[in-house]
Amino acid sequence: MTFAKLGLIEPLLRALERLDYNTPTPVQAQAIPAVLAGRDLMAAAQTGTGKTAGFALPLLQRLTLEGAKVASNSVRALVLVPTRELAEQVHANIRDYAEHLPLSTYAVYGGVSINPQMMKLRKGIDLLVATPGRLLDLFRQNAVKFNQLQALVLDEADRMLDLGFAEELRAVYAALPARRQTLLFSATFSDEIRQLAAQTLNDPLSIEVSPRNVTASTVKQWIVPVDKKRKPELFSHLMRKQRWKQVLVFAKTRNGVDQLVERLRGQGVNADGIHGDKPQATRQRALDSFKAREIQILVATDVAARGLDIDDLPLVVNFDLPIVAEDYIHRIGRTGRKGNSGEAISLVCADEVQLLSAIETLTRKTLPRHEEPDFTPDHKVPMTDANGQVLKKPKKPKKPKENSSKRSLGRWLDSAETPAAAPQAKPVRKVPTFNTGPRKRKP
Ligand code: AMP
User: Fold this and answer.
1) What's phi and psi for 407, nearest 5 deg?
2) CA nearest neighbour of 313 among 290, 288, 282
3) pLDDT digit string (tens) for 85-129?
4) What is the C-alpha to C-alpha distance for residues 319 and 192, in angstroms, rounded to an integer?
5) Which pLDDT band, with edges at 50, 70 and 90, does 46 fall under?
6) Which of 113, 231, 241, 425 qualifies as a FRET site for 209, CA 20 to 30 Å off?
């Protein structure tokens, strides 16, 4: 199979040749002809499958060959993504693909000044990549109009709902023309996503390119049981012992990220952190330096779990397990990409046994345990299995404080606070309906 056989025009083929894309990936082989033919799409595809080109190439082609010239402040195709980093990354790819096309493309997201974005939108943009919150701000200030819109892409739709963007999505839909092509990409398909699909797609073609909810077989995964307070020490010990080179580390809270980075820097390690409290420019700089291998260890909250395309990352460490089991798949999906081998190590304490059990149930895999000789935990991590069994009950979590019930789970997913009690498995997935999910946090 070649891109030419899929019906792509010469300027796109030329761009692909320069990028060294020789053969379409499975998602591209299925999506490109369908999108060119104008069909809606519902695709189960993770980052790393080539999904960006899967939707962008045919949309760019349609924008080139069909429709009127873009009017002032108008947008002809809109790609919604959950995070700022992803907006940058998707737009960078699209710019490469559109190199030889007479189209304008741009990305808008929060955390940076809105004025330059308003200026840029004045001329109209053929294809706009946006995070939902900033897009809505721009729309409400009349900086962007949708009357010319012919295509909408929801990229990482499940993540957008997890981040509490349901309200923004609803508001964006209300402003879009009913007649349009809609493409929905999601790594996982919860009931909420299916409901979203039912509300937005018209006779969609369903594509599933990788088995659902499984981790890449090229990633060697294991856990190291440890007492919570000894995690930093164990981390430094393993880093020295196993001579870690480039590592992406996930911690639960912003505070946790900062503390680990500070500790590592104190030990002379070249480390940096990204989380939602940092200005966007700082986040992007840290990520770029990590990609350029100028930083050895990048510590992040789940803001970095999805979508980021980091080539040949050998190791992901879960300093804390994720609250939402699906995020485990996304976190470790940063390694073992494109068939390379990778490793994913999780430091697990007794408090996290329910989270571990939820991950093992989701991935249908019992994670092997390797105890580190000097770090055998006093508080044993109960044995678990892939059927969701915790074979010995963990200690009962403390009762939450009075007012903690008011706190939304999403807030402390990426916040300086820690929950008063160990959460139950997969709590955030309970966004009640697509229409009512509250905004939980900014990406
Ligand atoms: P994505 O899943 O869209 O984030 O793409 C993952 C990575 O695969 C990106 O670095 C793309 O540049 C690359 N890629 C996408 N499609 C192809 C292809 N057909 N051949 C080679 N590389 C590709």
Assistant:
1) -75, 130
2) 290
3) 899 999 999 999 999 999 999 999 998 999 999 999 999 999 999
4) 29
5) confident
6) 425
24 lines ligand 1 (CB under 6 A): yes
Tens of pLDDT along 174-221? 999 999 999 999 887 878 888 888 888 999 999 887 544 556 667 889
Rounded Cα distance between 263 and 239, Å, is 13
Query: What's the CA gap between 93 and 97, in Å, rounded?
Result: 6
Distance 48 CA to ligand 1 centre (A): 6
pTM over 0.85, yes/no: no
397 and 419 in contact (C-beta within 8 Å)?
no
Which ligand 1 atom lies nearest to the CA of residue 51? 3
Q: Does the pLDDT at position 47 exceed 80?
A: no
CA distance 60 to 16: 13
Domain ranges of the chain: 4-208, 219-363
CATH number for 219-363 (one of 2.40.160.40, 3.10.310.40, 3.40.50.300, 3.10.120.10): it is 3.40.50.300
CATH topology identical between 4-208 and 219-363? yes
Closest CA to 382 of 373, 369, 400: 369
- Residue of minimum CA distance from atom 15 in ligand 1: 50
* CA atoms of 11 and 84, how far apart (whole Å): 29
Query: Which DSSP state fits 240?
Result: H
pLDDT digits (tens, 9 = 90+) for 373-415: 999 999 999 988 777 677 655 445 555 554 433 333 332 233 2
Residue 54 has pLDDT above 90, yes or no: yes
Superfamily designation of domain 4-208: P-loop containing nucleotide triphosphate hydrolases (3.40.50.300)
Query: Atom 5 in ligand 1: which residue has the minimum CA distance?
Result: 50
Ligand 1 within 6 A of CB of 323 = no
